[in-house]
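Q: How would the structure tokens look for this protein?
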Amino acid sequence: MKKARMKSHYEGKKKSPCLTPNDGKSTTKTENPDKKTDKSKDVSKAASADKDKSKKKESTKKGKQVNRLKESRKMALLEANEQEDREIKKLERFLGLNKRKNKKTLPQSFVTDGLDYILGVLDSGSAAAGMYRGDDDDDDDDMEMAKENFEKLEESDTQQSEEDEKAEDEMASEVSENDDDGDDDEEEDDKEEDEEEDVSEGSDELMESDAADEENEEKSEDEDQSDEKAPPSLKSEAVTTEPGKYVPPQLRNAGDDKRKAELEKLRRNIKGLLNRLSEPNMGFVCSQLNELFMNYSRKDMNDTLTEVLLAACVTPTLMPDRLVTEHVLLVSILHHSVGLEVGAHFLETVVRRFDEVYKSSSEGKECDNLVAIVAHLYNFQVVHSTLIFDILKLLLGSFLEKDIELILFVLKNVGFALRKDDPLALKELISEAQRKANDTRSKFQDQTRVRFMLETMLALKNNDIRKIPGYDPEPVERLKKLQRTLIHRSSGGSDVKLRVSLENLLAAEQVGRWWIVGSSWSGVPMIGKQEDPTAKHSSTEGRFSAKVLELARKQRMNTEVRRNIFCVLMTSEDYLDAFEKLLRMGLKDKQEREIVHVLMDCCLQEKTFNGFYAVLGEKFCSHDRRFQMTFQFSLWDKFRELPNLSSSTFNNLVQLVTHFLQRKCLSLSILKVIEFGELDKPTVRFLRQVLTKLLKDTDPEDLAAIFGRISGIPQLAMLREGLKLFISHFLLKNAQTQAPAEQAALLSERAEVAAKAMEAKEATLKL
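A: Here is the predicted structure in token form.
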């Protein structure tokens, strides 16, 4: 019956009389159900209306709670931002930054102290942020984390509010049960109402849980999508990275994968260009490398280019001459177009590699390839002949079979160019090789290689190209023409040769690189002493004291170049200081000759001979052959003016010429302009003083070397005969009659040494 009533209640039907077994009770029983059903309908309608109202109130209540929570948090954030702005303005006022006009950039003091990199951790927009985080998207991750925390707080608040409402409903239901009057029908109706409320509450709870599950699923999907969009580096860094510490500038590139990738890409680009290198596309490859020099740093380009070039040209096997010449031609073009540091870095690396391989005495052909590179660098006007002669002297020092082979290799490639640039040095080298060959005759079982080397040297000396087997200058000359077409010089007389020696290159790490503009150098002996700041400032800026300028005017230094040279000579500390300052003046060919003229004029104007000018002139003569020729022409002019010279000037000239001859700066060939058949008294006096000092004050070995420099030369036959006649007629006769016996014997002995040295014949070479 109870189930039937519940069914009829929910279906809204009346109870049928057939359901009652007794007639007397049926009337009452049939009347009561009608009343009960009407009453239950009214109660259910009222309960549903109350529930709708309660639901609306609950939803509005929840919305108001969430809105109040958001507004309160928003106000708290705004207040915190305002407080932070006030603190920042206070600190700016203390630091004096509020007076700056451009407040978008950091002040220079922050940059110098390294604070821009520390601020890069906090500021995602700065360039330094990538040093610590790797990307600017880290702020987005922080915002997502903040949103997730905010939503979790909202969910916890809503859950607490729902639990409170449930507790209130349970209390209300308990109170309603306690207030029941005990009627069975009313109890059943109450139970039905409770069941309806439980069903509605369960449905509400299910709906709320479904909504919460949907929100959680949407959040998880958004997080998954953000994780998929983010690169893997950010995922890993979000877990592993910590607040970055300050990294010094010299250590910032250590272990940087991005830099390694850039260098690897640069190396591939350069290697690809060098693989396509040939004579026709030399201009294209040079233009591409010029663009790379503009886009990358000089250090990275020099290191990478040198590494790739040495990997291509230096192998255990002998490389083809054409390949080596084309690669060296590329270096020479970049040396002229980009800057001196390109050729200087490549040359220093090659020489250091040659020194290592030569000392290790390896059996491969790496040493031959390195020597070929240096020789072709000389061919293409990158390096001066000084380095080539230093390498040849090094090879002559040990004089082994490998050394003889390398000497032949160098002379075959650049022998005639060396003869053209510095014939005296080549002649001394040949004489040294002859002495070495005679001394080490028993050292070699097979003399064929040594004999072939001496024949090659003799062919070079006599300018006989036919006696050098396999010599073909045509490929190098063709590449030189190509070089002239590709090099665009700002001035036709510019000289970009590196005038460095082997010792300078090997000691570059300890002493410095004076041949590179802007590089430090500690090779001057006076570098440790304190210099006068006023004198240094005046010499560097071209401002000299009034006293020195007045002295220059009295000495008739009428041009600006001569005046500057004179002031440098007068204000220098020593001859090395004067030499460096004069070289740094950057004088051109014609202006450079003024150095010799001013030096000669100052030396001859002194009351007594000053050795400073002689030592400085010796330094210039050893520096370049151009100065030797200029000194020779200047002395010839003075020889013509001997009758007009004063006694002090005459004595100074004798001292200067004697010093140059003793130091082997100049040869006795400077006297070939003197006509020994038409000698006047000043000339006889000059020759007597010069030759007497030369014979008395010089050791026999040095004397033989000095007079031996003019032997065997057909053009100097008249000079040799004139000197022999002058020594025997004007020196020995006067010494026997006027000088003491000891000095006369010494003079005659030295005269015999000089005569034998001049009579030495070098037409035939003997082992």
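Residues 667-766 form one domain.

The two ends are 145 Å apart (CA to CA).

Upvote if useful.
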